[in-house]
Design brief:
Order of helices and strands: EHEHEHEHEHEEHEEEH
CATH topology: TIM Barrel
Distance between the termini: 12 Å
CATH architecture: Alpha-Beta Barrel
Strand content: 15-25%
Helix content: 25-40%
Structural class: alpha/beta
Number of helices: 7
CATH class: Alpha Beta
Number of domains: 1
Strand order of the largest sheet: 1-2-3-4-5-6-7-8
Number of strands: 10
Shape: globular
Largest sheet: 8 strands, parallel, barrel
Length: about 200
């Protein structure tokens, strides 16, 4: 099971996530309490080994800015978390993770319009896109079995529910941000607990 720790904002948190066994580290470049600029992200990226993939999260950003940030930071993936069209997602030299907010089964049908490396299924937007700590109805994902090898599950995950989420959705990966934080900061112990549970065979 692949694990993405999103919303990393410090070198210490990045090192803790890597040591805990994270497969992907996410940097947020959109409006969020976890937002970074490209120089901050580049500095943090310097301590992340090549074996751990760096993901930049963008919301309705223009393509040139995305490309510039990806090049500066040395991103491995671009995650598009806004209203980006299928055509928009096709213009990058980087593999794309497209995020979808899931309220109903109809929301899942939009996934079929996109050709991306991964599809990240998240809970409906709160103040910001993603990172709201709320889960959606995992039962809806049963309609997506042909794509399950590309599904990353997000939204309201934490160490106590991630095994149930994996059993119900059968994703290729899980994404967590607020579920491994204490008082708004990444918690090394919570990252360890989450990754151990996510990667444990049931």
């Amino acid at each position: 099971m692949n694990v993405k720790i999103c919303g990393i904002t410090t070198k210490q948190a990045a090192i803790q996530a890597v040591e805990a066994g994270a497969d992907f580290i996410g940097f947020v470049f959109a409006d969020s309490k976890r937002k970074l600029d490209r120089e901050q992200a580049k500095e943090i990226a310097s301590v992340i080994p090549a074996s751990v993939k760096k993901v930049g999260v963008f919301v309705n950003e223009d393509a040139e800015t995305i490309k510039e940030i990806a090049d500066t930071v040395g991103l491995d993936y671009i995650q598009l978390h806004g209203d980006e069209s299928p055509a928009f997602c096709q213009q990058f030299a980087y593999p794309v993770i497209k995020a979808f907010q899931i309220k109903t089964a109809e929301d899942l049908e939009k996934v079929n319009d996109y050709n991306c490396a991964y599809y990240l299924l998240d809970s409906p937007a709160g103040k910001y896109r993603g990172g709201n700590g709320e889960a959606f109805d995992w039962g809806l994902v049963k309609h997506l079995h042909p794509l399950e090898e590309k599904i990353i599950l997000a939204g309201g995950l934490h160490a106590d529910n991630v095994q149930q989420a994996i059993a119900e959705v059968k994703p290729v990966g899980v994404d967590v941000s607020s579920g491994v934080e204490t008082d708004g900061a990444k918690d090394g112990n919570k990252m360890v607990a989450f990754i151990e549970k996510a990667k444990r065979e049931r």
